[in-house]
Amino acid sequence: MVAFQGDEPVDLIRSESGELTGLESFLHKHQFSKGIVGSVRDLTEHEERALASLKFPLLRFSPSTPIPISNRYRTPETLGSDRLAAVIGASSLKPNSDLLIIDAGTCITYEVIDARGNYWGGNIAPGMQMRLRALHEFTARLPLVEAEGEVPGMGYNTETAIRSGVLRGMKYEIEGYIKSMRSKFPHLQVFLTGGDHINFDTNIKNSIFSDRYLVPRGLNKILDYNEKD
Fold first, then answer.
1. 96 and 33, same structural domain?
2. pLDDT digits (tens, 9 = 90+) for 121-157
3. Which structural domain range is residue 110 located in?
4. What is the predicted pLDDT for the residue at 86?
5. Which of 7, 11, 42, 82 is catalytic?
6. Catalytic annotation on 82?
7. Which of 17, 40, 60 is the last residue of a domain?
8. Which of 33, 60, 87 lies at the terminal end of a domain, its last residue?
9. Same domain, yes or no, for 113 and 198?
10. Is the pLDDT of residue 18 over 60?
11. pLDDT tens-digit profile of 58-93?
């Protein structure tokens, strides 16, 4: 949950799934006049009751909600609300720009919006923890390896071979997407969000905007856009 003052996030709280821990004190602290909820999963009964008790108007973000960009995705009803919100959040920070938005979380998503505000879609790949777990769960003997630790160019034992394979594989994958998209959009700008930390080479790192609030920024923009309508 994120609180905004105008266009800028000013506070957030994280809660366990289904609990909305700290919601009451958060609401009292900021005195909200409106809100928006977007979720990629079904809300629990507890969450639904908590949202129903709110004393201010609440917009539920759905595929039919008006948005400030043109959605060219062919199956908008299957598009995750977090993916679309991240695109809108990035576009609000860099309007009239060709953008690649990379969200490195449970999955890694790659989204493209052009300078005219057309969102063309994107790709979904396994995230860091998913890759590490898959190597353990879908093989007979490979161990479950933590992401923290040495990442040599070539692993010198099974642990470093797995960690380097996953982390360097993600790095090369992301750099490949950036290179490919820049061949199509020469003035492409890149945003990175999500919880996974990736060590890029300096020349790549210096060309990426990092913002952990892209999804909340996008939801905030959607809320403002619908209020004006």
1. no
2. 999 999 999 999 999 999 999 999 999 999 999 999 9
3. 69-214
4. 97
5. 82
6. yes
7. 60
8. 60
9. yes
10. no
11. 999 999 999 999 999 999 999 999 999 999 999 999
- Are the C-beta atoms of 87 and 110 separated by less than 8 Å? no
**48/103 same-domain check:** no
Q: How far is CA 203 from CA 169, 200, 207, 208, 222, in A?
A: 18, 8, 7, 9, 34
81 and 42 in a single domain? The answer is no
Q: How many domains does the chain have?
A: 2
Report the pLDDT averaged over residues 184-194. Answer: 95
The predicted model scores a pTM of 0.90
Q: Which residues in 166-200 are b (16+ Cβ under 10 Å) and which e?
A: bbbebbeebeebbeebbeeeeebbbbbbbebebee
Q: Which of 221, 1, 222, 214 is nearest to 109 (CA)?
A: 214
| Token pair 């003052």: residue | 5
Identify the pLDDT of residue 125. Answer: 97
Q: Is residue 221 part of a domain?
A: no
| Token pair belonging to 213 | 């609030």
| 65: Cα within 13 Å, side-chain hemisphere | 24
